[in-house]
Design goal:
The complex is a heterodimer of chains A (178) and B (451).
Chain A (H helix, E strand, L loop, with lengths): L1 H14 L10 E7 L5 H8 L12 E3 L8 E5 L4 H13 L5 E5 L1 H4 L22 E3 L6 H12 L7 H12 L11
Parallel strand pairs in A: 1-2, 1-3, 3-4, 4-5
Chain B lengths: L1 H5 L3 E7 L5 E7 L2 E7 L5 E3 L9 H11 L2 E3 L26 E6 L11 E7 L2 E8 L7 H5 L4 H9 L6 H16 L1 E3 L1 H29 L3 H22 L12 E2 L5 H26 L2 H4 L10 H6 L4 H6 L30 H22 L7 E5 L6 E8 L2 E10 L2 E8 L1 H13 L7 H8 L3 H5 L1
Parallel strand pairs in B: 4-5
Antiparallel strand pairs in B: 1-2, 2-3, 6-7, 7-8, 9-11, 10-11, 12-13, 13-14
The chains are: A alpha/beta (178), B alpha+beta (451).
The structure holds iron/sulfur cluster.
């Protein structure tokens, strides 16, 4: 493990990531609603040592029951509408929905109309939009942060985000592991 | 069909057409041919008794094109998702047998798909995979388009295999149009395919580490993969090399300085990846989980028509790169499995060994600049073309049918599609908690299969 750890250490030194200043915690649950896997690949990298999303108090969690943000990729295929709705319903409130990638936002979507039910905003209210095909890990991290740090009078999404971010406690109090 | 197989030809995929036609592609070396028929009443005899690899192809044709296959019993739903369990589940009964349902949404950042395990205690007796949650109807949507426009439908079937799928598509169209790529075009496409393999193999080694919860390994390889993609972006403008492949030509250029810079960066990456890989050999907690797990025996790998590193890890020789006259693989010899035992350890090692060949090839290919390249007319145009490319997951076959210059049928049979049935086979008899590891050792794309 020595070589691996020293590689990781030198990566950290060379990228010289700054620390997040605000103490907060926000759980993100990802749902693939029919992507080409590009958005997943990039999202999977935001927690690696080059980007380290966790330093801002953001992390990817295993279940919608643990999540404050539902992060959705893909154009929403007909077969993913139901699972997507179930995941959203399983989340505690307040909650946010983020559409990740052009497909999720309804731009340049490829596919047969019979098989597609999206974009995401046709099915769920979208609070955060992250364009790109796919957005790079850097873009994903910075856009998530920018969306959460919008000034307090810019509307509903932010109010919910601040409430969650500042308190770190959800209104429902209870967590169910599944 | 039986004669063809006895004569040494290999099944490479089958597809239905919108008019109820049925096609079977057969290959021998770099040659490919297609058997075609137009069955009355959309009914014909199955070939699954002879070709185990055709099971999914027939189920797909049944679901999407209404073909009936006499002798394919039971005909279980593949792409359609009927509500009744008996329409798609294997009946498994007995004392203590219970089902565990996982997905379509998983716990990690993973694509959507459903697994239904039949277990006794923690032991998996059988696994039914229900994929196609991500079915976007890409093939049907491409019908009626010109070959240049339809390219995007093959490319965006899957980002991680975008280059392999695009090149297979370009080969298929060029095959139909009678076009032959120049040496320069072969070279630039080979560079792209091998770069894609490099970042995928780095990713897949990290994925196995993640599958056993070995964070140091998964983080180190995630960073290596990220660096590889960043090199792709610097050289060719996109981290997944979207938009680098065209039909009939290649606009990619890399002057001598840029090619050499990429070569140097790749050498650095190779050195770091090599050191990280050697370190994994001493990670006892990782190694202890790999041997004897998720075994896919040689005979079953052949029976299921498994391709790519997964097949080679089971001792099945075969690599489309040995039969790719449309790419620059002269003198290529496929890596030999260090173990050939078909377990997780073997599939993991296979990737590391292949990565070395890939670094070697890239180093050679980038010794000269890349220039804009073209195809030339060699044969008369026909209405059907086949393209094959060895992607990082194995043989990917693309078939196109053309009429009056427009695509009437596009079919993409990716390596993931070929290998998914083997994941279920390799999982049977193992412990449920080892499934993520077994799955990761194949590391198949859902998007590639679902299309
Ligand atoms: S936005 Fe681009 S990368 Fe993301 S799922 Fe769609 S096609 Fe793939």
């Amino acid at each position: 493990m020595f070589v691996l750890l020293s590689q990781l250490r030198s990566l950290r030194r060379s990228t010289a990531l700054t620390r997040g200043s605000t103490p907060r915690w926000l759980g993100i649950r990802h749902v693939d609603a029919g992507s080409c896997n590009g958005c997943e690949h990039e999202l999977g990298l935001v927690t690696n040592p080059l980007h380290d999303l966790q330093r801002y108090g953001l992390d990817i969690v295993a279940s919608p029951r643990h999540a404050d943000v539902l992060l959705i990729t893909g154009p929403v295929t007909t077969r993913m509408v139901e699972p997507l709705r179930i995941a959203y319903a399983a989340m505690p409130t307040p909650r946010l929905v983020a559409a990740l990638g052009d497909c999720a936002l309804g731009c340049n979507v490829l596919g047969h109309p019979d098989e597609l039910a999206g974009p995401v905003e046709r099915i769920l209210p979208v609070d955060i939009r992250i364009p790109g095909c796919p957005p790079t890990p850097q873009q994903i991290a910075s856009q998530l942060l920018a969306a959460l740090e919008r000034p307090a009078d810019s509307g509903q999404p932010l109010a919910a985000a601040t409430a969650v971010a500042a308190s770190g406690v959800r209104t429902d109090g209870e967590r169910i592991r599944d | 069909m039986a004669d063809a197989l006895d004569g040494g030809e290999r099944f490479a995929g089958a597809w239905a057409t919108s008019t109820g036609g049925w096609r079977i592609a057969l290959t021998r070396g770099s040659d490919a041919r297609v058997l075609a028929c137009q069955p009355a009443d959309r009914r014909l005899d199955t070939v699954v008794d002879m070709v185990g690899a055709a099971v999914w192809d027939e189920r797909e044709a049944h679901d999407l094109y209404g073909l009936e296959f006499t002798g394919h019993e039971p005909m279980r739903a593949l792409i359609k998702h009927p509500a009744q369990p008996e329409a798609w589940l294997t009946p498994v009964t007995g004392p203590g047998v219970h089902q565990v349902a996982v997905g379509p949404i998983h716990a990690g950042v993973i694509e959507s798909g459903h697994f239904r395990f039949h277990c006794v205690g923690d032991r998996i007796l059988a696994l039914d995979t229900r994929l196609f949650y991500k079915h976007r109807g890409l093939e049907r949507a491409a019908e009626g388009l010109g070959p240049d426009q339809a390219l995007a439908y093959a490319a965006r079937a899957c980002a991680a295999c975008a280059v392999a799928n695009s090149v297979a598509y370009a080969h298929a169209v060029e095959d139909a149009l009678g076009l032959e790529p120049s040496m320069q075009l072969r070279r630039q496409r080979t560079v792209l395919v091998e770069l894609e393999r490099a970042y995928n193999h780095l990713n897949d080694i990290g994925a196995v580490c993640a599958g056993v919860g070995y964070a140091a390994g998964s983080m180190a390889f995630s960073a290596l993969k990220d660096r590889a993609q960043e090199l792709c972006s610097q050289a060719f403008g996109h981290r997944f090399m979207f938009g680098t492949v065209a039909v009939g030509s290649g606009a990619l250029t890399l002057d001598a300085g840029a090619a050499d810079a990429l070569r140097q960066r790749l050498r650095e990456l190779r050195a770091d990846a090599g050191a990280a890989w050697r370190d994994l050999q001493f990670a006892a907690s990782l190694q202890a989980r790999l041997e004897g797990v998720g075994v896919l025996e040689h005979d079953r790998a052949i029976q299921f028509g498994v391709v790519g590193p997964a097949a080679r890890a089971s001792g099945v020789l075969g690599d489309v790169r040995t039969a790719s006259p449309r790419l620059a693989y002269e003198g290529f010899t496929p890596a030999i499995a260090p173990r050939g035992s078909g377990d997780v350890a073997s599939r993991l090692q296979m990737r590391a060994v292949e990565l070395e060949t890939t670094w070697e090839m890239l180093d050679e290919l980038l010794a000269a600049p890349l220039v804009a390249a073209y195809t030339s007319q060699r044969e008369r145009a026909s209405s059907l073309g086949i393209g094959r490319v060895e992607s990082s997951r194995g043989e990917t076959v693309c078939m196109v049918e053309l009429d009056a210059g427009l695509i009437t049928r596009l079919h993409l049979r990716t390596a993931s599609y070929a290998n998914w049935p083997a994941v279920a086979a390799a999982s049977a008899g193992n412990l449920l908690p080892d499934f993520p590891l077994i799955n990761k050792s194949f590391e198949l794309c859902y998007a590639c299969a679902d299309r």
